[in-house]
Amino acid sequence: MTSLDSVLDKDGVRLTVDDAVATVTLTNPAKRNAQSPALWRALTEAGRALPGSVRVVVLRGEGKSFSAGLDRQAFTPEGFDGEPSFLDMARGSEAELDATIAEYQEAFTWWRRNDIVSIAAVQGHAIGAGFQLALACDLRIVAEDVQFAMRETSLGLVPDLTGTHPLVNLVGYARALEICATGRFVHAGEAERTGLANLVVPAGELDAAARDLAGALLAAPRDAVVETKALLSGAVSRGYEEQRVAERAAQGRRLRDLAGITD
């Protein structure tokens, strides 16, 4: 293993790289890792800064909470320093508002790239944007004290940071609607039972469990994992026969690669 290399450290986000494993850490525990546009831009930058050698990305939050969601300062008339307030955004054109939200969403989209596997290590509160950030990852390991909640609807808003698609895929439409519309907490037992969590561990073992899973993911050849991830993620939108075709094509590529045959 090489020594830990700090690639980025700004606006509440730190990216470090150790060989094939990168760790993205939310670094504002005093505010329970509350999120802001600056943090979202830093997360987007972290995704773009990943070296090509990285195969697994672990997302974690310092302190007792993974992320308590959007910083409430966003809802004040003045908003954040140097940023348009939500009220200012609402007064702009529909095209401008759409473009701004699309920019924010970029912080949540890169975690499912086929060339990496992302793991969210989640403890304490994961509320609203925090819940959606955990959902942005491929896999979730959670501490026994985890509390997921989608509170946007309770505030008169909707979840708009890419969380609705994975939530429905994981727990189904009816449960997803109930979770979002009521804003209730989802605790560790339910998270594991419904597929939101791959594994539940004591809080003190969370980082070690994430490292163990990262190591297990690295045991298989990279190209096979990349192809398998693409197959599984595409299965959501493909029919049975389409998936059979995709499997054959992917296996053909793997066999030709293993045999050293190039097109």
Percent of residues in helices comes to 40-55%
CA(first)-CA(last) distance: 35 Å
Content of β-strand? 15-25%
Query: Which of globular, elongated, flat, extended, rod-shaped describes the shape?
Result: globular
- The helix count comes to 10
Radius of gyration: 19 Å
Q: Which class of secondary structure composition applies to the elements?
A: alpha/beta
The beta-strand count equals 10
Mean pLDDT: 94
Please state how the strands of the largest beta sheet are arranged side by side.
1-2-3-4-5-7-10
The biggest sheet amounts to: 7 strands, mixed
Output the helix-strand order. EEEHEHHEEHEEHHEHEHHH
Spans of at least 5 consecutive residues with low confidence:
none
Record the SSE blueprint.
Elements: E1 5-10, E2 13-18, E3 21-26, H1 37-48, E4 56-61, H2 86-91, H3 94-109, E5 117-122, E6 125-127, H4 129-136, E7 139-143, E8 147-149, H5 164-171, H6 173-182, E9 186-187, H7 188-194, E10 199-201, H8 206-218, H9 222-234, H10 240-258
Parallel strand pairs: 3-4, 4-5, 5-7, 6-8, 7-10
Antiparallel strand pairs: 1-2, 2-3, 8-9
Helix pairs in contact: 1-3, 5-6, 9-10
Walk me through what this model shows.
The protein is an alpha/beta fold. The chain contains ten helices and ten strands. It has helices spanning 37-48, 86-91, 94-109, 129-136, 164-171, 173-182, 188-194, 206-218, 222-234, 240-258; strands spanning 5-10, 13-18, 21-26, 56-61, 117-122, 125-127, 139-143, 147-149, 186-187, 199-201. It has a seven-stranded mixed sheet with strand order 1-2-3-4-5-7-10, with helices on both faces. The chain has a three-stranded mixed sheet with strand order 6-8-9. Strand 2 and strand 3 form a beta hairpin. The longest helix has 19 residues, at 240-258. The two termini are 35 Å apart.
